Amino acid sequence: MNYEFFIAKRIIKAKQYKSSVSATIIKIAIAAIAIGIVMMMVAIATGMGLQKTIQEKVAAFNGHIQISNFDNNDSEVSLTPLDSNQEFYPDFTQVSGIKHIQAVAIKAGIIRTEKTFEGVLAKGVGTDYNWEAFTDFLKEGRFPNVSDKRENREVLISAYLARRLELKLGDTFKSLFLKENTNEIPNERTFEIVGIYDSGFQKFDANVMLVDIRHIRRMNKWKAGEIGNFEVFLDSFDEIQLKDEEIYHVIPPNLDTQSVISKFPFIFEWISLFDVNIFLIIGIIIIVGGINMITALLVLILDRTPMIGILKSLGSSNWSIRKIFLYNAAYLIGIGLLWGNLIGIAFIWIQRSFGLLKFPNPEQYHTAIIPTHIEVWHILALNIGTLVLCVLMLLIPSYIITKITPVKAIKFQ
């Protein structure tokens, strides 16, 4: 143990240290570090939680990557059928990191009731559809049974559409779907609501209802096995750009890929701004915390001026004495980080478990409850970064020790 650390340790344990004039200022500095680390952890957790929630919701409706015909169809509606008999379906083994692939088809229509009507996108799904992505969205009822030998009338509709159309679980309604020849009489289908979902993402809730894909095939006069497009789900959203390129190079040349990032650029550009806000908050809080620690360090030096004089008279170098106070300051920062971590992690856990805090305008953020998500390495990086930056900020003010002369310091006592 070097003597600088030994002296710093003795100062920390001394009773005078805890009851000195500087004790209150030191406590304020510790509280500032603790509050700062809590705010930084909450900023990271809520920012990343909101990003992750929106990513998951967009992917639930579209998959991470879509495989479709190479054409100029920019609409959501499936126009040209695609043969589902592909080498990569139903098991996509050519590319690693793929969790699931499913076949879907979409047709635009109108739901008509006695009082009102609404435009919808009927998304046809089959037995391969991943209902797990919709489990958290399901509010009432169950998912449609699309595994029967014959097509059925069961449909999953959003709470938004059900509210606007004044429909409830168990109700039936009629839908109209235009044919390719607009002069012909539209297709009419009667559906029964067996489930109601609410994703909180109004862009999708206002349009999408899920039906048996065989309805879409029959109305479009497609052959058995023909679909609109494939939806691919990945193990990691962070690899979406890389996997998009890999998938594109292994599928047939008549097929194209599109990631949800390129399909909904405005959504992902918006949530990418959260990173800027997070870094801005962290930067401001670290600066404020550093200033508080500088104040505490100067008070410590002032309070221990006689000791500095004695140490200098005994032959200690300026850098050795500075190290004593830097060790002391690092200890104070560590105390603040400890309390900040305990409070911050507890707050994030409570919010994640019980969802006490909610958005006043959930339609703007596409979720009602403020989500939280933080990784262990984020917490470690935040603590190490805060400790290192604060200590580095203290190097300059600690230079004042070099200006203290032993004679004046001892007289000061």
TrEMBL record:
Domain MacB-like periplasmic core: where?
Answer: 28-218
Subcellular localization: Cell membrane
Q: Which Pfam families match?
A: FtsX, MacB_PCD
Primary location class: membrane
**Might you report a single GO cellular component term?**
plasma membrane protein complex
UniProt keyword Transport present? no
- Membrane topology of this protein: Multi-pass membrane protein
TM region(s), chain numbering? 21-45, 278-303, 324-350, 376-401
Enumerate the spans annotated as ABC3 transporter permease C-terminal domain.
280-406
Q: Give the keywords, sorted.
A: Cell membrane, Lipoprotein, Membrane, Transmembrane, Transmembrane helix
Biological processes per GO annotation: lipoprotein localization to outer membrane
User: What InterPro entries does UniProt report for this protein, alphabetically?
Assistant: ABC3_permease_C, Lipoprotein-release_system, MacB_PCD
Checking PANTHER family in the record gives: LIPOPROTEIN-RELEASING SYSTEM TRANSMEMBRANE PROTEIN LOLE
Task: Name the family.
Answer: Belongs to the ABC-4 integral membrane protein family. LolC/E subfamily.
Q: What is this protein called?
A: Lipoprotein-releasing system transmembrane protein LolC
Gene coding for it: lolC
